[in-house]
Design goal:
By secondary structure, the protein is α/β, with parallel strands linked by helices. The chain has helices spanning 13-26, 46-57, 70-80, 89-103, 113-117, 121-131, 143-147, 151-154, 168-178, 186-195, 200-216, 227-230, and strands at 5-6, 9-10, 35-39, 60-63, 107-110, 135-139, 157-162, 183-184, 221-222.
C-alpha cells in the first residue's frame, strides 16, 4: 500500500502493516496455519487500521465487548456475516465456520483481550480449525504474552505484527487530514510526537486543535518560534 492520503484516509504505517499481515496470512501455504495477531499499545490506531483493512479486503470484522459470552461472540460473528442467528452454540459455530470456508473471507477480531481475559480463547481456535480460514486477532501490547497460556492457540499464530508508534512520515500524512490549511515545520511535528509518545490518536487530536488555533490567531505556518503564541499551554498529552 502506498504512503499517501486517499478519500480522507491517511495510509499510515499501521494501516499498511495490518493490510500486509492479513494478505500474507490469506496467501499462505495451505499447510500453514491461518491465524495472525496484530498487537500494540492503546492509541496506535489498530482499530482504525482494522476497519480500513476490513473494508478493503471484504473481511468480516467483529469488535468484542467485555460482556461477551461465547454465545454472544458467535452471535456477533453471524450478524457480521448477515446470517440469521439461531440454534445452539455448536450450530452457530458450524454455520460461521462454513461461511468462512465458503467465502474465503478473512475474519478480523478486534479487542481480543476480552476473550483472553475471560478464558474464551478456545472458541476462536475451534472456529479456525473448523474453517481453516484466515483469522486476525487484535489486542493490546501484552496479548502475545497472555496467549502463551493457550499453547494450542499461541503455537498456531503464523504472523505476529506489532503496531508502530507514529513517526514523522505518519505525522505529515495525518496533518493533511487534520490540519490541511496550515503548514507545520517538522520540528513542531517532532515535538508533538515526543509529547504524546507516538500515540496516533493524540497526534490526530492535537493536530486538529493546532490547526484551528493557528487560524484563529492568523498564522498559516507553525514554527518552533511561534508555537507558544499559538499553543500557550502546550500539546495535550
Amino acid at each position: 500500500m502506498s504512503n499517501s492520503v486517499n478519500n480522507g484516509i491517511a495510509n499510515i504505517r499501521n494501516i499498511a502493516k495490518c493490510y500486509e499481515t492479513v494478505m500474507r496470512t490469506s496467501e499462505r501455504n495451505p499447510n500453514l496455519s491461518g491465524l495472525a495477531c496484530f498487537y500494540g499499545h492503546s492509541g496506535l490506531g489498530k482499530s482504525f487500521a482494522a476497519n480500513f483493512v476490513a473494508n478493503k479486503t471484504g473481511a468480516f470484522y467483529v469488535q468484542v465487548k467485555s460482556t461477551y459470552s461465547k454465545k454472544a461472540f458467535m452471535q456477533a460473528v453471524l450478524r457480521e456475516m448477515c446470517i440469521p442467528v439461531s440454534g445452539t452454540l455448536n450450530d452457530m459455530m458450524e454455520t460461521a465456520a462454513s461461511e468462512l470456508a465458503k467465502t474465503s473471507k478473512p475474519l478480523i477480531i478486534d479487542e481480543f483481550d476480552h476473550l483472553v481475559n475471560s478464558g474464551k480463547v478456545e472458541i476462536v481456535r475451534d472456529l479456525y480449525e473448523a474453517s481453516q480460514g484466515t483469522i486476525l486477532v487484535i489486542g493490546e501490547e501484552l496479548l502475545p504474552k497472555k496467549l502463551e497460556k493457550w499453547e494450542r492457540f499461541h503455537g498456531r499464530i503464523l504472523n505476529w505484527c506489532a503496531a508502530l508508534p507514529t513517526d514523522l512520515s505518519d505525522c505529515r500524512l495525518l496533518q493533511q487530514i487534520y490540519a490541511p490549511e496550515i503548514a507545520i515545520d517538522d520540528a513542531v511535528l517532532q515535538t508533538l510526537i515526543a509529547a504524546v509518545r507516538g500515540s496516533t490518536r493524540r497526534v490526530s487530536s492535537n493536530l486538529e486543535n493546532l490547526g484551528e488555533l493557528a487560524l484563529e490567531v492568523g498564522k498559516r505556518q507553525v514554527t518552533m518560534s511561534n508555537l507558544k503564541e499559538i499553543l500557550p499551554h502546550g500539546f495535550v498529552t
